[in-house]
Amino acid sequence: MNSLNHRFCIAPMMDWTDRHCRFLHRQLTRHALLYTEMVTADAILRGNRERLLGFDRREDPVALQLGGAEPEKLAEAAKIGAAFGYAEINLNVGCPSDRVQSGRFGACLMREPTLVAECVAAMRAAVSIPVTVKCRIGVDDQDPESSLRELIGLCARAGVKTFAVHARKAWLEGLSPKDNRDVPPLDYDLVYRVKREHPKLKIVLNGGIGSLDEAEKHLDHVDGVMMGRAAYHSPAMLVDADARFFGARAISFDAAVEGYLAYAAEQLEQRVPLNKLTKPMLGLFNGRPGARLFRRHLAEYGTLRGANLQTLRDALALVQRAPEPVAA
Predict the structure, then answer these.
(1) Which residue spans of the chain are classified as CATH 1.20.120.1460?
(2) Most CB atoms closer than 10 Å: which of 161, 184, 212, 233?
(3) Are 59 and 22 in contact (CB under 8 A)?
(4) How far is CA 255 from the centre of its chain?
(5) Annotated catalytic residue, options 9, 21, 95, 119
(6) pLDDT digits (tens, 9 = 90+) for 6-55
């Protein structure tokens, strides 16, 4: 069943890729593979599963990203995720945040590749959908040339066929996760080499990809690209992804916005606050006349009690009414 198309993916990002963000992205691209925020195995086993895992099937295909380091718990969480309808289960071996480290999962697992292999083997035994790994090239003082190869080699022997590799080393000590977004430098060439060494594996490149042009260039060397922050900050670019990467018809931007408005109306009826629905839209008009007015209107009125779909339509009208720049 490992037939998912990873040619273009939108990365999992904590506090961003909730179900509303994914629904917006799905209006902009019908074919990109979407990911959830990381959910810990413990949270799934102990918490409100509908709140943690529930999603609209109109978002499909969606991969569930899990965090954890105990094979049995991860296997059970993967089984639950598969029952919810996710297309893939992805193990997080890349997040450097403090709260992730304290739970002995995320990027710190780069130091325990044998354990990671045991985890994915248990997950694969529990589900019939693909189990994949998202990792870094290394952490702290590790040599990425060996740490990345060792992790991929062990996990591949455990049956994993797809790896999303963030091409930057994670610093868990002495550098904040925010600073780690830019330091140390990205090493795309290492990921390219690993792909050449493993032609039968699917290698997806992540890290620092800021445009579809950049993504297309990387596809000369790897099987897929995974775009992170750029997709959240300037989501409008996604309307070109289907035509560019999947040979499908491009989506109309206006139709995508209307599709999300219809979804927002449904969610408002279920008493979801408007500001939760508009958060993923804030960068939607970046670079267009009226974008700042759109954001300002939502900041001023979108959080008020009684904010509704008309509040959002009023904000959208500010973009539509904005005059075009006068040529010099």
Answers:
(1) 253-321
(2) 212
(3) yes
(4) 23
(5) 95
(6) 999 999 998 899 999 999 999 999 999 999 999 999 999 999 999 999 99
pLDDT in tens, 240-266: 999 999 999 988 999 999 999 999 999
Distance (Å) of CA 75 to CA 45, 157, 203, 299, 310: 11, 18, 23, 42, 45
Q: Of the candidates 317, 319, 264, which has an alpha carbon nearest to the alpha carbon of residue 289?
A: 319
Superfamily of domain 8-245: Aldolase class I (3.20.20.70)
Backbone angles phi and psi of 36, in degrees to 5: -75, 170
CA–CA gap between residue 212 and residue 208 (Å, rounded): 12
- Please state which of the four CATH numbers 2.60.40.150, 3.30.430.20, 1.20.120.1460, 1.10.443.10 is assigned to the domain occupying 253-321: 1.20.120.1460
The pLDDT-based confidence of 2 (bands split at 50, 70, 90) is very low
Q: Is the pTM of this model over 0.70?
A: yes
